């Protein structure tokens, strides 16, 4: 382990000013990458931006804080991609500082500095600093809640308990995965602590204050027939259980990249050697291992995305850092140093990809970046045809298309706001948007001319309520490796 207990406190490499300067420089470089990167918004990022234009206390798939954050940033700086993503690198900087504070507070100064470095160079943080996602604010408030929990251990304060609960409530408003913290804290208290470090009254304050902060979204769900819960259950779709060991291997392999290969294996070693050997480590273990285990089970039953276990790595980072103070094992010291170097190299690779928009010199069979290129150019061409034909509305065929085009068309010309619709067979909330995003003939005037954007020339019975349907033109643009993204534009008149 990277044991610093025998290291000179004034070591230049790990001194407080040097570590802080590293964090600042890395963050500034990541902010700079947002300005020059050619990578356009992903489906989810564009959807969150759309929500930020229609602020509410909740949305069909997610709680509202991500939309509030984007609204704050874009209202100040405008609707540029970098403004949509701006909070991400800043938040990961503050997560590093919070983990530094937690580890220093609970285990010692030097462990705190290691925690900060471990997090800032974690591949999850490196990639998460470039994209805006619900994971980012979730991790911020998750770590902040944990900081105040450790403060309760020291000062037994109702103020600390209140702040911990409020932070947990904000984590819930970021992403519902915050429920893991809620449940696992209670389990840790019942199984291990039993009121010794965290009294029942303090625990109750944490829980009540978290629910109080989460109330706006809870009420929104109640007022909207619990659509988010319905969506979550629908996504689970337990009727389509796969039970495939290959999915488990894929998930575990992905975690080697999410947390770093050496650091992830190091965490597994530490967790099974320290789970209940220390009160503080037991809490960190409870807030990490059950989450990873649950997602592994999920991956076996169906499928699991690599980021679903990311909350576990807050505690994992702290455990690895804390072990540096508690243990004096030369091999573990070297492994931690080597793991940190590997993660630093991976963070540089991720930075290069975000700056250039390609994986070169790595050659991938299927380049995932292609999905996020070309939409602004295509939107410009759609606008030209739309203006020339004097259309009233645009209709797209699926969520992946409408999210990006909705963002880029409005970015180009604000007149497209409330003129972009999604063709679906269901009513709200089946389209991931608000009510007015369904294509519904009742919402259109007779003889109204509209434009339809499709990926193919097959019209079928998709628009039986239209008459005088005509092909307008084909638009396309190059993406990666000479590949093109092509769309076909049609016009139709409402019957």
Structure write-up:
- The protein has 495 residues and is an alpha/beta fold.
- It has two domains: 16-356, no CATH class; 374-494.
- Helix content is 59%, strand content 7%.
- The chain contains 20 helices and five strands.
- It has helices spanning 16-36, 43-52, 65-77, 81-85, 87-106, 109-120, 123-128, 135-155, 158-174, 179-193, 200-223, 227-236, 245-258, 261-274, 279-286, 289-301, 312-326, 330-356, 375-389, 399-412, and strands spanning 393-396, 420-422, 449-454, 466-478, 484-494.
- It has a five-stranded mixed β-sheet with strand order 2-1-3-5-4.
- The protein is globular, with a radius of gyration of 25 Å.
Q: Would you identify the regions where 5 or more consecutive residues have pLDDT less than 50?
A: 1-12, 426-438
Mean pLDDT across every amino acid position:
86
Relative strand content: 5-15%
What strand line-up does the widest sheet have? Answer: 2-1-3-5-4
Multimeric state: single chain
Number of strands: 5
- How many helix segments? 20
Intertermini distance: 72 Å
- Report the principal-axis shape: globular
Report helical residue fraction: 55-70%
Supply the number of structural domains. 2
Radius of gyration: 25 Å
């Amino acid at each position: 382990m990277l044991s610093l207990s025998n290291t000179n406190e004034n070591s230049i490499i790990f001194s407080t000013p040097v570590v802080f300067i590293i964090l600042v420089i890395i963050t500034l470089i990541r902010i700079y990458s947002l300005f020059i990167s050619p990578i356009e918004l992903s489906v989810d990022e564009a959807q969150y931006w759309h929500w930020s234009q229609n602020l509410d206390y909740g949305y069909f798939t997610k709680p509202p804080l991500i939309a509030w954050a984007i609204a704050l940033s874009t209202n100040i700086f405008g609707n540029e991609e970098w403004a949509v993503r701006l909070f991400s690198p800043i938040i990961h900087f503050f997560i590093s500082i919070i983990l530094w504070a937690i580890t220093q507070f609970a285990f010692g100064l030097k462990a705190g500095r290691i925690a900060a470095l471990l997090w800032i160079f974690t591949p999850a943080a490196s990639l998460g600093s470039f994209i805006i996602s619900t994971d980012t604010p979730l991790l911020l408030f998750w770590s902040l809640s944990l900081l105040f929990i450790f403060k309760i251990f020291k000062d037994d304060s109702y103020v600390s308990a209140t702040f911990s609960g409020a932070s947990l409530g904000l984590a819930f408003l970021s992403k519902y995965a915050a429920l893991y913290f809620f449940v696992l804290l209670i389990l840790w208290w019942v199984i291990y602590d039993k009121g010794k470090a965290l009294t029942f009254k303090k625990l109750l304050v944490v829980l009540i204050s978290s629910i109080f902060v989460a109330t706006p979204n809870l009420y929104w769900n109640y007022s909207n027939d619990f659509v988010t819960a319905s969506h979550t259950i629908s996504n689970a779709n337990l009727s389509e259980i796969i039970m495939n060991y290959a999915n488990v291997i894929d998930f575990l392999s992905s975690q080697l990249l999410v947390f770093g290969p050496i650091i992830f294996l190091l965490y597994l070693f530490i967790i099974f050697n320290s789970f209940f050997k220390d009160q503080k480590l037991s809490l960190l273990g409870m807030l990490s291992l059950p989450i990873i285990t649950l997602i592994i089970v999920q991956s076996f039953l169906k499928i699991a995305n690599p980021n679903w276990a990311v909350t576990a790595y807050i505690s994992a980072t702290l455990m690895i850092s804390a072990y540096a103070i508690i243990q004096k094992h030369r091999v573990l010291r070297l492994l931690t140093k080597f793991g940190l170097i590997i993660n630093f190299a991976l963070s540089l690779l991720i930075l290069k990809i975000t700056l250039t928009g390609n994986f070169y010199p790595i050659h991938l069979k299927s380049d995932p970046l292609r999905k996020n290129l070309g939409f602004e150019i295509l939107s410009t061409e759609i606008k030209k045809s739309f203006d020339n034909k004097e259309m009233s509305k645009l209709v797209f065929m699926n969520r992946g298309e409408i999210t990006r085009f909705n963002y880029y068309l409005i970015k180009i010309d604000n007149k497209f706001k409330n003129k972009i619709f999604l063709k679906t067979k269901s009513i709200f909330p089946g389209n991931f948007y608000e009510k007015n995003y369904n294509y519904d003939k009742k919402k259109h005037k007779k003889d109204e001319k509209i434009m339809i954007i499709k990926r193919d020339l097959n019209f079928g019975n998709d628009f039986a309520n239209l008459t005088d349907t005509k092909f307008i033109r084909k638009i396309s643009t190059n993406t990666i490796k000479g590949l093109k993204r092509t769309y076909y534009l049609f016009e139709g008149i409402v019957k």
